[in-house]
Amino acid sequence: MLVNMREILEDAEKNHYAIGCINSPNEETIRGLIKAAEEMNTPLIIDHAQVHDQLIPIERIGPLMIKYAEKAKVPICVHLDHGSDFTFVMRAIRCGFPSIMYDCSAMSFEKNVEELAAFTKIAHKLNITVEAELGVMSSTEEDSHGGKPLTREDIKKSFTDPAQAAEFAERTGIDALAVCFGTMHGIYAEEPLLDIERVKEIRKQVNDKCRIVMHGGSGVDADQVQQAITAGCSKINYYSYMAKATSKHVWEKLNAAKGSMFYHEVQEDAYHFIKDYAQDIIKMFRNNK
Ligand SMILES: [Zn+2]
C-alpha cells in the first residue's frame, strides 16, 4: 500500500520507534526492502536520491518503486531523497511520488524558509508530504552523495539550532525536518558522536505536526541510534553500510564459486542478503518495542 510520510511517522513517534528510509536504486533492492517489511509486518520508506539519478533516472526507477509499494501488504512510502533543485522535485511529482525532500539547506535561512513555505503549500494540496533540512548535513570522503571529508570538529559548526528549527517548521508548515547533530552521509572515518541533548531540545521546541529526521543512520552504533529515537527521531535514513555489505557478500560468494555463477544468481543472492540486512535495521529501529 502506497502512503505518504504523515500516515506512518505519527504512530512511530507516539510509540517511540523509527521508520527506516532506505535508498533503492535497483530492482533487487526494492524487492529486498519491501519483502523485509512485509515479513516483519512494518511500514517502510524507500527513496530515490537525486544524486543516484545519473545511475538510473527517476522516470525509470520511480514508477517501479511505486508499483511495488502499491502491491505491498504493508504501508510503503515512496520518497524523494535530497531533491535539491525545483525542476527535479517537479519530476518526482510527475512520477507520482507521495513524499518529497526538498533540500534547500545550502541556501540562507530566509531563502530556505521562502522556498519551503511556497513548496509545502502546493504539495499539501496534492496530499504530498514534505521534508526539509536545516543545518548542513556533512558528508564523508567515501559518499555516494558526493561530499567532502570533514572531521568531528568541523561538523559541529553546522549543527541545527533548536530555536531556529522551531521557527523554520512553523513558518514553512513542513511535515518532517532533517536535523544535524553529529551524523554524516557515507562511510564514517571516525566513530560518530551524537549530540542527543540537542535532539531532545529540537523535539521539545518544534511544533508537533513536524517529525524529526536523522540522516546518515548507517554506521552509527545501535545504542546511539536508539537514544536518538527515544529523543524524538522517527525517520532514519540508512544506506551506505548496507550497500557496502551487499557488495562484500557478493564478492565472497563469487570468490567461493571461483567466479562461476550466472548473473541472475548473483542478483538473486544480493536480493536475499538485502532482505536479511533490512530486517536487522528494522529490528534496531524498533527500539526494543
Ligand atoms: Zn541525507
Automatic annotation (TrEMBL):
Organism, scientific name: Pectinatus haikarae
Domain of life of the source: Bacteria
Transmembrane stretches, start-end: none
Classification via InterPro entries: Aldolase_TIM (IPR013785), Class_II_FBP_aldolase (IPR050246), FBA_II (IPR000771)
EC nos: 4.1.2.13
Cofactor(s), names only, from the UniProt record: Zn(2+)
GO molecular-function terms, A-Z: fructose-bisphosphate aldolase activity
Gene3D superfamilies tied to this protein: Aldolase class I
Keywords: Lyase
Enzyme class at the top of the EC tree: lyase
Name under which the protein is recorded: Fructose-bisphosphate aldolase class II
